[in-house]
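Could you help me review a protein record that somebody else here produced? My question to you is simply how this chain folds and whether the tokens agree. Thanks in advance; the entry in question is below:
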Amino acid sequence: MKGAFGKDRVCGVAAAETAREMKAQVRLGLGKTRTLELRLDYLRNAQEREAFLSWLSRQRARAILIATFRRREGGGLFRGSREEQIATLAQAARSGCQWCDVEIETARGLARGELRRALSPAKVMASYHNFRETPRNLGGIVKQLERAGGHALKIAAHCRSVSDSARVCELARKRRNVVAIPMGEFGLAGRVVALGMGSALAYGAVDQTTAPSQLSVDAMLDLYRAETITRLTRVYGVIGNPIGHSLSPLLHNTAFHARRFEAVFVPFLVHDLREFLSAMKKFGVRGLSVTIPHKESILRHLDGCDPLATRIGAVNTVVVRGGGRLYGYNTDYVGVLRSLERRMRLAGSRVLLFGAGGAARAAAFALSQAGSVVCVCARRPERARALARAAGGQAVARGDLRREFFDAIVNSTPVGMYPHGGSPLQSAELNCRMVMDMVYRPRETELLQLARRKGIETISGVEMFLAQGFAQYEIWTGERAPESAMRRAVVSALAREEKSRARRA
């Protein structure tokens, strides 16, 4: 089936209202991949479709072109009849499209073989789209699509869990002629990993997205290097809620590429930890980075744990060992130490941790071990007191911060994270020599800006993010992390993001 769609398994999606814009997207898309889907239903009227297909017929493009002209009934934009739809697709076939994607709502009303005859010489991809849920009876839907007589089958379904995403992807493992597309935030990782499970294609937007959580063709090719994914590719990922902000995929995919390590790193949105840990086996996950809010709760699901991580009571790194056994580590500990000890003497220092979650626990034990006096302040005072007791430190009430002085203040809450912004502390509460923010996106948070205006030295969360990531990579692979390449990738991405925001402001 891979051969039927050419050597490029990432299909760029071109979708625009006018023929002129569509042509531009085709040219742009062909510079990235030689497989393109042309969403003809996005063209705003028959005149634009006619102009575009007339242009296409003159191009003789050396590419695999898939024509899609989906009616409203099947989740598309075209409001006309089935007869008009098939006539337009037939015109696309005559204009050079080797494939026509026809949704099941159209196909089920036709006699077997009728679609193939009507759209010849193009081949038919019979497709099913469900933008509400992942049906339980996916096998029955596959049978319906097979009865339509297509040369290939495509199933795209909205996922409400990682388990849904795994069920969609597994269809491709069982049949060679299936394109599997899990949609929605829960399906994001599956869109990439599906290629390794046997999906004939994965889709990426050339410009505008046409389905929930559809990645860009650039992300598919450059970030995830999806074209290189095979059944032998090892899968790693980051789990959290939310997860869209994470730069961990960039960090670790850069490292894998630099070391030529055959692996891919993807983000998993996880609400229910138990459900995810069961579903991840179907994806063949070999290791995990764990972020908010699962760093503490994952402990009870592990088969073993590094003694330091057990003492901390939080895990941010998981290795999947033989038999699917899960073993946990904490590299946040390393990240905190490396970030602070380069800038200040920790022994005898007085450090305030603002927050009492999993990241704060790692920081508390790291600082205590280094000889610091650890103080903890949190939104929930009982959690601050519990962490202070565990680390041999002291709890500090929020109301006392204006009168207290610290050598350093460390924000271990997510407040300030892009895109929400904000500062967890007020300027008058920053009575210290140094402020460190564990939030790394943006590099200079509002908290760090407040500190800088008061003449206080600052440490960006990027330093901790990189240090803990280097340690994670080495735990998973047993190899030294390519630190320079990882740092360049993350710093460059953050700088581009900041310039983009500045232009929009």
Observations:
- The first helix runs from residue 19 to 30.
